[in-house]
Structure formats: C-alpha cells, structure tokens
Amino acid sequence: MRQAFVFRAIFTMSLLAGFSGLTGCSKPKVPDHDDPPEPQAAAAAQPTQLREAMQKPIDKAEAAQGEVDAAAERQRAAIDAATGG
Asked: What is the pTM of this model?
C-alpha cells in the first residue's frame, strides 16, 4: 500500500516536471502590433539646472578652442615668415 503511494507520488511529480518543462520551451507569444516606443529626446532638450551646469564648461572650452586655433595659425605664419617658407 505504501509502495503504491510512493510510486503514484513519483509518477505525478514526474508528469508535473515534464509539463512544466514543455511549457517553458514553447515559442513566445508574438505581439499583435509592433509599435516603436515614443521618442523621449524632446523632453531632455528642455534646459534644466543640471543640463546648464554640464553645458557651461563645454561652451567655455569650445570658445577657448577658437582662440587656441587662431594662436596656432599665427605661430605657423610667424614660423613660415622666419624660415622663408
């Protein structure tokens, strides 16, 4: 009697494990429609304190780059004039 109960319990657990394994291996459901997500970049373009604080050093560096480029051009012209080239 006890042996039949153990056999039935093992058999039932095996079936449950098999069915759960089969359902885990099934194909995923394909959505009815495939709409891309709405872009969120427009919301990020609004000025905020953090964005302004991050952008300020970048703007300052870009302005300084123009001055550095102009000074380099003047130096090249001076070198060319001094060497006759």
From this structure: 0.37
Q: In tens digits, what is the pLDDT along the chain, a chain of 85 residues? A: 778 888 888 889 888 887 776 666 767 777 777 788 787 766 555 678 988 999 999 999 999 998 999 999 999 999 999 998 6
C-alpha distances out from residue 63 to 2, 13, 68, 70, 72, Å:
88, 73, 9, 11, 15
Q: Would you state the structure tokens that stand for residue 50, as one six-digit string? A: 């953090």
Neighbour count for residue 23 (Cβ, 10 Å): 8
Domain boundaries, the chain: 47-85
DSSP structure class, residue 36: P
Place of tokens 């001094």: 82
Give the pair of three-digit tokens for residue 2. 């006890």
